[in-house]
Records
---
Amino acid sequence: MERSESRQVQRDANPPAAFADNERLRTYLEIASKAPMEPAPENRLETRGALAASRGFLATIEKRRSIRQFSNKPVPFELVENAVRAASRAPSGANQQPWTYVIVSDAAVKERMRAAIEREEYETYARRASDEWLAALAPLGTDWRKEHIVQAPYVAIVFAQVYGLKKSEAGIVKVKHYYVAESVGISVGFFLASLTHAGLATLTHTPNPMGFLAEILERPENERAYVVIPIGYAAAGARVPAVSKKTLEQILVTQ
Ligand code: IYR
């Protein structure tokens, strides 16, 4: 660490010709070397401050549980908006930011989503899910009933933009997006962390299939529903399944 810290961040101005052995790569390097750059933002803390911040964040995130019973206590919209801002800072393939966050608070829209979601989930639990899947789900105590969609003050539906749509002289053209699932997953992680940090309860819910959400929410053709996230305060007396996380020893390998 010490050594890499003191190493100069410097790029060879003229990569040896051997590495740019074709015209396409030479052209690419020429363009890439002219990409506008700016100073990296400062985000360093002294060790003591870093440990306090790290432990504080850990203590908060350790309280996160998937909540299925929400109170109707209103949530200041800024908490959700700031979470979307946090989500927007996620790294993404080629910085294409292939996500759209739809935040629903309208009771009628929530009812329509709930009805459609419960219809699909009923099929899943009754017929589509394998015995193995149902056995994996049983310890969570879930079923097709999804009151939380209407109980939670806000429901976020995150859409993945499987390709971009750009205006050009030829009309609207499709733009390929890279690493869409990874990018949206990371962004949703930031979103959940921000909401948790603000003391809110969330549930990541993935009805399957969920094509009907794009219809209900009138999303464009390039968007696919990725996850549904009810957001609110946990109901008084909310219960969660008594399950545990893997230990650090099970998931951390150092070498
Ligand atoms: N989508 C269904 C089933 C379900 C699937 C998984 I994997 C879970 O972790 C939880 C539920 C439902 O939401 O009930």
Note: The chain has ten helices and six strands.
---
Amino acid sequence: PVEVRREDYRPFPWAVPQVALDFTLGLEETQVTARLDVRRNPAAEASPVLRLNGDGITPLWVKVDSAETTGWVMDGPDLLLTLPGEAHSVEVATAIAPAANTQLMGLYASNGMLCTQCEAEGFRRITFFPDRPDVLSTYTVRMSGDAGAFPVLLSNGNLVSSGKGEGGTHWAEWHDPWPKPSYLFALVAGDLEARRDTFTTCSGRKVELAIFVRRGTGDLERTGHAMESLIRAMKWDEEVFGREYDLDVFNIVAVSDFNMGAMENKGLNIFNTRYVLADPETATDGDYDAVEGVIAHEYFHNWSGNRVTCRDWFQLSLKEGFTVLRDQLFSADMGSEAVKRIEDVRVLRGVQFPEDSGPLAHPIRPDAYREISNFYTATVYNKGAEVIRMMRVLAGPERFRKGCDLYFARHDGEAATCEDFIRAMEEGAGLDLTQFRLWYSQAGTPRVTIRMAHDGDKVALHLSQNVPATPGQPDKQPMPIPLKVALFDPQTGAHRGEQLLVLDKAEDSFIYQGYASRPVLSVNRGFTAPVAIAQDVPTSDLVFLAAHDDDPFARYEAMQELVVTHLKEAVSGSLSDEQRDEGRAAIAGALRAVLADERLDDLMRGELLILPSHAYLSEQMLVADPGAIHGERQALRADLARALEGEFVALHERASAVPYSLSPQARGARKVKTQALIYLAEGNPALAEKMAAAQYRAADNMTDRQGALMVLAGLQGPERTHALIDFYNRYRGNALVVDKWFSLQAGSLHPQVLDHVKALAEHPDFTLTNPNRVRALYMAMAVNPAAFHDASGEGYRMVADLILQLDPLNPQTAARFVAPLGRWRRIEPQRANLMRAALERIAAAPSLSRDTHEQVIRSLG
Ligand code: HT7
Ligand code: ZN
């Protein structure tokens, strides 16, 4: 497969101002006629050749200026025409087979309905087209089909007309007035029902809102939270970013077969059911948050992505990083800012940091790819958001808003670049981002080393930075790193104000006067920079910050650091028994303070109780021994649970008395309740089994029920079996809840977890054709260290077998399973060999997809 390089970008020689599509719909066969009005693009190098991308389709006929022609050739999957004049009309007819489309890209069938997924390069599986984001067109879409099978016919924009056809068919015509790239095209046809509402925009325009689900499934009652979230997002975007919605309708359709979370097609968002449906009986508090966040994310794309789109796919972070930041700020405003920041940083450290230190590392604006689907990554999305967040930290919220306003005004209706965004931010916010641009071009998580020296009344902070080498980037330059810091007086427990310092050299020192006694340093408060901090801090400083820091993120950070430092030493074998006991006692003391602190709300308390993840701990070590990390982490938990058993039981009892509601207090209570069980399961399994079984039976909501079942799934008593059988029988037929049932077992701490996964793969409800189900079983196992890193190598073999089986059906989903195996260089040698062998077995398979092939080659490379 050929490599596409950012530096090779050239404007397309032809503009396509208008497109008319005509669909004759059928599940087995759909006929598509596309009429493209094309004219030469004066901004591009002239060429008479019009290249229309295709993927797995053939033209039935081709017309130029209304006359059928044979003057076309295929160049691989693409159709080439030579056009003599300045402007022409080009028509192409194709026939496609939605029901046979297991890749879920292009037009496909899902439970009897037809829907599309065109980002990034799915439109070319529907018809021949310049399928690149810098070709913007207005679309008119006519579709006709059986009125019984497809009573609802939807596309982008506004419904223009509709009517009855012959033989029980009907038709509809939609027109989208906003020019858009082909990746934002969408069509849905099916037997759907909708929750409807309206939103009046800030300029007084009434927008009809609808959320569609399959008729007769009971799903309609579960769309209330999604609708409320949408309305809140529309209002927030007006108030915080000054962005108004621009069509008369906004439709959302929920689909159960979907490769990713959702898709921001203009005026017709298509969602994985997972991010639409929620009610207390079937969705956890986490699910509620995810629905709110993804609904907002896709809605916000209407400006950051649709009105201003991307010039090419190297600019993906322009829309994704920016939109993730926007959805993070929204969710922070809707709930607890501190808890949201902690959750976002946990994802960054657990997923993006490992990506940045492994073989798949790439800058947020990549330089080359073979398959663009492989670059929808935590780096492009989450680190991309962090990079824009840093601009906001540097400018402050008001000036940042000015930069955003300028960006939207200047590039409205255009296909823009990351450089355009940076320039608008420089001019609008008044920043000099010359050196900052390195955040776009350099991969790798910077490591900042800090040493504090105290002499007389002077404090010196000596900082240095190192950006590690990554594939293809052996040498790095220092980047500007904004760090919020505060110096605490441990006696008074106060500091003299937070300061923002920017480390923009390889080494620098920052001096503070007037500190008669040595202060305690709180650094990277609010996680202002996506970096790893290395410093030698006394345990007593961490204990102090964990109890007293007035920045909630920094308090959480101190708690994490306390545990990370201890576990790193414990895993390396450098602790005597006595030192280990001392370390555990210090952590127990800090946890006891967290449990007793009445100023803390339970949502925040719950965060402070969560131990650093296995993934984050592994990241701290050059070469990790997953068995040792898992063993030490669990042993620490058991010790803490024994030391604090009474407190955890009391916490569980207190929280269990709080009745169900979606209030922060009730959500906090549910969070700490399950946290208490997780600890007790390690320290006193018999007691935990009893308490979890009681929680399971008493549950009147999915958060409590799932929390209890998760704990039981890892235990070996009889309650485990009872609860698992009960859960399945209670929810069979509800796909999203059955996904939970698969996940909880595959992610469990049970010693026979791999046997359970094998048995579940044979369960009648398991299927390789539904990505949610595949992820529920296999991704849960691949991120479960005790299962995936089983010393036998069986976890690696099972993932490799899955990839080989899934690749011919759904390469995009298959390729996502390569990354866990790709970590082999950072794992101890015995397991590393087994992981590499699994990758080599995949690489040796004949006819791998471009998606999986690219990831495997990079992982071995
Ligand atoms: N912009 C959307 C990306 C997406 C996608 C990409 C590749 C293959 C399938 C896909 N489905 C959705 C989602 C988003 O980030 O908003
Ligand atoms: Zn997005």
Note: DSSP finds 28 helices and 32 strands in the chain.
